[in-house]
Amino acid sequence: MITCDTKRMEDKIVTFSKFGDAGHGGITRYSLSPEAHQARDEYVKRMKAIGANIETDDMANMYATLEGSEKGLKRIVMGSHVDSVKNGGNYDGVLGVLTAMEVLETIEAEKIPHRHPITAMIWTNEEGSLYPPAMMSSGVICNQYLPPEIAKKFIKENMLASKSVLDKTSTFGEALDKSLYKGDQKNRLNPDDYMAMFELHIEQGPILEDAKKEIGVVTCVLGMFNYRIRFYGQSDHAGTTPMHKRQDALFAAAKALCYLHEEIDKLGRPELVYTTGEILCHPNVHTVIPDLVDFSIDVRHEDPAVRAKVLSIVKSLDGKTIERCKGEVEMAWTRDTVYFDKELVGFVQESADELGLSNQTINSGAGHDAQFASYMLPTTMIFVPSKDGHSHCEPEFTTVEQCTAGASVMLNAVLKTDKK
Ligand SMILES: [Zn+2]
Q1: 239 lies in the same domain as 112
Q2: 214 C-alpha to center of ligand 1: Å?
Q3: C-alpha of residue 308 to centroid of ligand 1, in Å
Q4: CATH classification of the domain holding 159
Q5: Which residues surround ligand 1, an ion (CB under 5 A)?
Q6: Full-prediction pTM beyond 0.85?
Q7: What b-and-e string marks burial along 387-400, b requiring 16 or more CB atoms within 10 Å of the CB?
Q8: pLDDT tens-digit map of 326-372
Q9: Residue 49 forms part of a structural domain
Q10: Which residue of 69, 86, 100, 174 pairs with 120 in a disulfide if CB–CB is 3.0 to 4.6 A?
């Protein structure tokens, strides 16, 4: 079996960790920022050094391609993103780019024959940390293949108008126009020129580490729903209104949230995850009884039947009165489980087995560009362990051996795809 090079991998991780170094072990590298451009420059330098051809598309997604031995065949692409969240780590996203580069570098160094062109790709603005939303450019590039209710959230004109969360005025479109890496729409990832996509990513959870597995063979991105729950009360003075007469919307919402946890936990599904991460309280004044509380619930599970059971619990709050406050439930959005291409998943599994790497199948609870790409062309993902399950924070860590093992799996899976 052919494997990637640990030293070369380590050099890339160390080098790219400097771009946006926040000074305490992690990075802040917003998409299209000067730091992100440093990372792109380094990618160009290294990819040109192995003879790869560099292209960019109209969303500044970048493609470095090694030609194959047969003319006219479709490309195989690997890639992820180099942007991070604020005070993020050195692995989320960028590792998928570095391993893609490592695969190309190994192919070049070892003179590995391949029929198809093979591409290492950078997706622009996956995190959406500065210019929301997340997965912006895969949402644009794959737009016509996405389910309509998702597609309409990623209309290119609206994305270009997305305002910076920092200054609230400058837009993504302006940043794109300033970028030297804004290219041509004809270079976009597309199903006529590309046959398959791989994305390697850190797991962002503790499952592989707890199971002492080196590789996660990803089979799907979990289906989910996101609802808003509201309770309506009556604002009154905090000092003069007797407790038994109050319509306290926050107290009602708190009881509703406890009810949700108790009822959902009764389903006895340890793999089910659900979160209330956002709460709006009106008027949010310490001397006033709240008259409106609006909170989110995000629920994720592979099986639609399980999601349906949770949804019926959530919906049971609609029209329900708690503490003299009326409840209301409204859908924000939903998505079905996205299954990755079975043949590519099989290639990842076989490669991990043949390399003697411990592995297990796993699903992704987080969204990734590969999820949108999978609506357009055969796609799959490879996970490597995250120390203590940490991600989107500075302690993010995966050993260089684990990173290289992931690259080796991707290399062999790509070569199996090439032989098809
Ligand atoms: Zn990521």
Answers
A1: no
A2: 19
A3: 28
A4: 3.40.630.10
A5: 92-93
A6: yes
A7: bebbbbebebbbee
A8: 999 999 989 899 999 999 999 999 999 999 999 999 999 999 999 99
A9: yes
A10: 100
